[in-house]
Description:
This protein is α/β, with parallel strands linked by helices. The protein contains 15 helices and five strands.
Amino acid sequence: DLGINYLRINNVCGARYHIGKAFELDPFDAETVNTLRLLDKLDFMRISSVDVPDVDDPEKRIGRALVRLDTEDADALEPYVANLIVSAMQTFSERYQFELKKPMVVELYHDHDDFGVRTVSTPGIGLLGVTFGYLTAMDSPKARAAGEFHWGSTLWHEIAHVYTLEATNHRLPRWLSEGLSVYEEWHTGPLKDRSIPIETLLAIAKGDLLPISELDSGFVRPSYNGQVQVSYMQAGLVCDFISTRWGHDALVVLLNQFADNASTSDALLAAIGLDGPAFDVLFDQHIESTYGDLARNLDDYQIARRQIQRAVTAEDWVSVEVLAQDVVLRDPARVG
């Protein structure tokens, strides 16, 4: 465990030493063997560095990132990763008034099982990216089928975690950490797509969204299938609502309150002048006015989407146009 956690803070030498000692004591432990094999692969990954200049003073450096890429990916991927890192660090340094205290480490793996072992010492996890403080690891574009995910949005999401975790010394609740990352994907990320998944609309229709004081439980103790994904969207919608109604600075105040160990209700009072229950009332009204009709008529909406797909398959473009216009009226944010 010590070796694996050393690896999560990029102490590769310490990790190799302790995991090697564990292997001597038990050469049949799967997590130990998996991690040793991953360490062997790390030796052959390309490492580069990215210095991030201040937007207003290019001579001043506001941070540095170390990038670790599979050699097969590196030539093609490295310039894009570097550009996105610079943009993200400049954006988040300004938006959250916080500069990283040491270099951030970014790793992209072209084998999803390698990423799984890097994260939890076991292959087969259903995640795209994970952040451990100053270190973030994720799938590269090659790890998934083409079109399955937008790697730039995932990296943007994870870098936002680095800033919000470090700005609060890891004291912010899970819902706010994930909510701010989703919110930043929507507002500042490379793919500003705010489409709300069907599962979240179903939860709205059923009244399954959680009070803000209980939102963490949707991530760590889900009570129904898919609640973790619904909680991601709800947390993003909460942050989006706060920013729209009280301004982005309210989110910064909220974040800083947790650095001082405030409760959710106390942090909300300081940021927007409302406690948890009072906020829930306004948020529920916002969700109803924005998504209520769509959620209540979800069957008709899904039928219309299936009809579009059939019309596309048949290359019946007149029907596609008519049906698509109907769906746009029902849900203008669904850019697809």
